[in-house]
Amino acid sequence: MSDETLARLAEVLEARRHANPDESYVAGLHAAGLDRILRKLGEECTETVVAAKNGESDAIVYETADLWFHSLVMLSHCGLGPAEVLGELERRFGLSGLAEKAARPGTDDSAR
Protein backbone atom coordinates (compact mmCIF):
# COMPACT_ATOMS: atom_id res chain seq x y z
CA MET A 1 0.00 0.00 0.00
CA SER A 2 1.40 3.34 -0.95
CA ASP A 3 0.64 6.72 0.53
CA GLU A 4 -1.50 7.25 -2.61
CA THR A 5 -3.64 4.26 -1.66
CA LEU A 6 -4.03 5.59 1.87
CA ALA A 7 -4.96 9.03 0.54
CA ARG A 8 -7.54 7.56 -1.87
CA LEU A 9 -9.03 5.44 0.90
CA ALA A 10 -9.15 8.45 3.21
CA GLU A 11 -11.03 10.41 0.53
CA VAL A 12 -13.60 7.61 0.17
CA LEU A 13 -13.99 7.33 3.93
CA GLU A 14 -14.48 11.08 4.25
CA ALA A 15 -17.17 11.04 1.56
CA ARG A 16 -18.93 8.11 3.21
CA ARG A 17 -18.74 9.82 6.59
CA HIS A 18 -21.50 12.14 5.44
CA ALA A 19 -23.63 9.43 3.83
CA ASN A 20 -26.82 7.96 5.23
CA PRO A 21 -25.86 5.81 8.26
CA ASP A 22 -28.47 3.25 7.18
CA GLU A 23 -26.65 2.82 3.87
CA SER A 24 -22.99 3.18 4.84
CA TYR A 25 -20.99 1.27 7.42
CA VAL A 26 -18.56 4.19 7.77
CA ALA A 27 -21.38 6.72 8.22
CA GLY A 28 -22.92 4.40 10.82
CA LEU A 29 -19.66 4.30 12.78
CA HIS A 30 -19.38 8.11 12.71
CA ALA A 31 -23.02 8.50 13.72
CA ALA A 32 -22.47 6.15 16.68
CA GLY A 33 -19.61 8.35 17.88
CA LEU A 34 -15.99 8.11 18.89
CA ASP A 35 -16.53 5.51 21.61
CA ARG A 36 -18.02 3.08 19.08
CA ILE A 37 -15.20 3.74 16.61
CA LEU A 38 -12.60 3.14 19.34
CA ARG A 39 -14.33 -0.05 20.49
CA LYS A 40 -14.25 -1.34 16.91
CA LEU A 41 -10.60 -0.31 16.56
CA GLY A 42 -9.78 -2.24 19.74
CA GLU A 43 -11.57 -5.32 18.41
CA GLU A 44 -9.58 -5.15 15.18
CA CYS A 45 -6.34 -4.71 17.12
CA THR A 46 -7.07 -7.82 19.17
CA GLU A 47 -7.96 -9.82 16.06
CA THR A 48 -4.68 -8.72 14.45
CA VAL A 49 -2.70 -9.82 17.50
CA VAL A 50 -4.44 -13.21 17.54
CA ALA A 51 -3.78 -13.70 13.83
CA ALA A 52 -0.10 -12.91 14.33
CA LYS A 53 0.12 -15.19 17.35
CA ASN A 54 -1.40 -18.00 15.26
CA GLY A 55 1.12 -17.34 12.49
CA GLU A 56 -1.44 -17.43 9.69
CA SER A 57 -0.12 -15.10 6.99
CA ASP A 58 -3.44 -14.63 5.18
CA ALA A 59 -5.23 -13.87 8.45
CA ILE A 60 -2.49 -11.45 9.51
CA VAL A 61 -2.85 -9.49 6.25
CA TYR A 62 -6.67 -9.55 6.42
CA GLU A 63 -6.83 -8.41 10.04
CA THR A 64 -4.14 -5.76 9.54
CA ALA A 65 -6.16 -4.36 6.63
CA ASP A 66 -9.19 -4.16 8.95
CA LEU A 67 -7.05 -2.49 11.62
CA TRP A 68 -5.69 0.09 9.18
CA PHE A 69 -9.19 0.71 7.79
CA HIS A 70 -10.65 1.36 11.23
CA SER A 71 -7.61 3.46 12.18
CA LEU A 72 -8.38 5.68 9.18
CA VAL A 73 -12.01 5.96 10.31
CA MET A 74 -10.79 7.04 13.76
CA LEU A 75 -8.39 9.57 12.26
CA SER A 76 -11.19 10.97 10.09
CA HIS A 77 -13.49 11.29 13.09
CA CYS A 78 -10.74 13.26 14.86
CA GLY A 79 -10.23 15.58 11.89
CA LEU A 80 -6.97 13.92 10.84
CA GLY A 81 -5.81 11.72 8.00
CA PRO A 82 -3.01 9.50 6.83
CA ALA A 83 -0.88 12.49 5.79
CA GLU A 84 -0.33 13.48 9.42
CA VAL A 85 0.67 9.94 10.41
CA LEU A 86 2.94 9.53 7.37
CA GLY A 87 4.51 12.90 8.21
CA GLU A 88 5.26 11.72 11.73
CA LEU A 89 6.78 8.50 10.43
CA GLU A 90 8.88 10.50 7.97
CA ARG A 91 10.06 12.74 10.83
CA ARG A 92 11.28 9.66 12.68
CA PHE A 93 13.53 8.44 9.85
CA GLY A 94 17.14 8.58 10.90
CA LEU A 95 16.28 8.62 14.60
CA SER A 96 17.09 5.78 16.92
CA GLY A 97 13.86 4.31 18.25
CA LEU A 98 15.23 4.58 21.77
CA ALA A 99 16.28 8.20 21.27
CA GLU A 100 12.90 9.09 19.74
CA LYS A 101 11.05 7.51 22.66
CA ALA A 102 13.27 9.23 25.21
CA ALA A 103 12.57 12.60 23.57
CA ARG A 104 8.80 12.26 23.98
CA PRO A 105 7.29 14.41 26.71
CA GLY A 106 6.18 12.40 29.73
CA THR A 107 8.02 9.23 28.71
CA ASP A 108 8.48 6.92 31.66
CA ASP A 109 11.00 4.18 30.95
CA SER A 110 10.52 2.58 34.36
CA ALA A 111 7.65 0.49 32.93
CA ARG A 112 10.05 -1.47 30.68
SS elements, strand count: 0
Q: Provide the helix percentage.
A: over 70%
Distance between the termini: 32 Å
CA radius of gyration: 16 Å
One letter per element, helices H and strands E, the order comes to HHHHHH
The number of helical segments is 6
Shape category: globular
Described by strand count, sense and barrel closure, the largest sheet is: none
Task: Note poorly predicted spans.
Answer: none
Question: β content, as a range?
Answer: under 5%
Structural class: mainly alpha
Mean pLDDT, to the nearest integer, reads 90
Describe this structure in words.
By secondary structure, the protein is mainly α. Helix content is 74%, strand content 0%. The protein has six helices and no strands. The protein is globular, with a radius of gyration of 16 Å. The two termini are 32 Å apart.
